[in-house]
Amino acid sequence: MAILIKAINSCEPINDMVIEKMAMVYCYEEPGQIESVKEYWSNWLTGENEGDKLTVVAEDIKEQCLAGVVRFWKTPHCGNKWLIEGLEVIKPKRKSGLGKSMVEYGLNFLKSKGVDKISANISSKNVASIKLHESLGFKKISSGAINSYGDFRPYMDEYQLVLASLWDNEVS
């Protein structure tokens, strides 16, 4: 599997094709949602959503498509803390380590920029995501969580990672 993981702002210019590819990852199993997801990505990438952002993609070189996307957001609606948002890997590439690799890429990038903590709000039923984040050192810090728009979600739990304690020799 020839996969290239990169920050979206370091690859091609943001255009309709990039937005289409990113939307296709999120709509892989529900293609009827593509137009609303394209609108979301357009707003995300053009700065309509306030706050600092990092978008990491996994590009399948052989298939010439995106196999995964994850967003990191320093949201003003949540005390300006960094959150991992919307980790998604297309079904044929799941359980390959791709999601973990994308999150690690983003964590290393943010650590290199001086970010010291990052949170992830995960549904208490999403066992795969909980295991992935715990394998990276995230610890559960609350039952119920404030989402990225400042709304309380009782079915979400907040997990947090202190970046300074990890990967001291791995940040590039």
TrEMBL record:
Name by which UniProt lists this protein: GNAT family N-acetyltransferase
Gene3D superfamilies listed in its UniProt record: 3.40.630.30
All copies of domain N-acetyltransferase, residue ranges: 12-168
Species whose genome carries this gene: Proteinivorax tanatarense
Residue ranges the record marks as coiled coil: none
Pfam families: Acetyltransf_1 (PF00583)
InterPro entries: Acyl_CoA_acyltransferase (IPR016181), GNAT_dom (IPR000182)
GO MF entries: acyltransferase activity, transferring groups other than amino-acyl groups
